[in-house]
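Ligand-bound model needed. zinc ion.
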Amino acid sequence: MYTAIGYAAQSATTPLAPMTFQRRSPRADDVAIEILYCGVCHSDIHQARNEWGIAVYPLMPGHEIVGKVTAVGHAVSRYQVGDLVGVGCMVDSCRHCEACAADLEQYCLEGPTMTYATPDRVDGSNTMGGYSNSIVVNQHFVVRIPTGMDLASAAPILCAGITTYSPLKHHGVKAGHKVGILGMGGLGHMGIKLAKAMGAEVTLFTRSASKAEEARRQGADHVVVSTDAEQMAAVAGHFDFLLDTIPVQHDLNPYLETLKFDGVHILVGLIEPVEPPLHAANLVLKRRVLAGSLIGGIAQTQEVLDFCAEHGISCDIEMLDIQHINEAYSRMIAGDVKYRFVIDMATLKA
Ligand code: NDP
Ligand code: ZN
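Prediction:
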């Protein structure tokens, strides 16, 4: 065991604050990592404030981790001390069920071990995430940062990138498809870039007319202001796919009406009950599909990093001193970040 530091919430109503705790010494298959950067995902806010009802305290968020390998267990073959690596939302899974065998560890039938607030499969301790100076992770759940990639702007690919890439790939998005991205925050801005790189015609749906110019700079071909009924009506029956990153309950019906027949509305932001209710006719009469998607498997997380390197895609980030993490949460809720905060972990030493 060794002593680590990080920022954690002690309860759903207390702000994040510094905390000292113990990280395990690397097991045979483990990689120890000095964390250099960690992205700030809206899921971190949901969890720190127990908005999903599954939080375990103390809760140390952070699952967009980039760092340098400092030690490896004796059975580690894939990484060496000094390698630049990433860790996303998961740190373990059963590794033998149908989902794990298909490289879909996020759907592990026994439940994946998440990077924070989940019991470790070996010793039962509560996992602690990346708002910290270090982490120790099984080598299977570690990915390689492509050579030459900017480390800070690579961090959000570990969650925002894979969460938007995975469903676009799964549903076969390609040139000629019309894709709508709902919400331009951390996930949404990556969704625009990735769908565009896959060849789709991309439209951003946003509440904020002021984001239109920015969205075009990200690669969006069109922008629809979702609060403007006329603009919504103008795109009725238009889209093959919608990727919905909105983090709160919202009316799905006006969006479903913008899909073609056989169109697919993919939820990634919402896990609460749909409210107001869904009009089933919006699905039935056009054979439309309402789908969901959870992050992506480890092999695909490496794939999206490599895809971003190949296509010159990076996240738009604002660097953050960890001392300002609570303000950053308020600003994210107000939609005041372009488009991902990334913590510079060097500031943890201050
Ligand atoms: P952000 O806060 O960065 O962005 C969310 C965007 O949604 C905002 O920028 C805004 O875009 C839009 N939005 C926010 N509030 C509202 C509202 N009240 N009504 C309508 N639109 C709104 O969040 P992230 O991108 O980090 O995360 C998005 C969601 O995805 C979160 O719920 C997160 O937990 C979830 N998530 C899911 C994962 C999965 O595997 N399924 C993985 C990671 C995250 P605009 O101003 O353009 O309207
Ligand atoms: Zn996330």
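Residues 18 and 40 are 16 Å apart (CA to CA).
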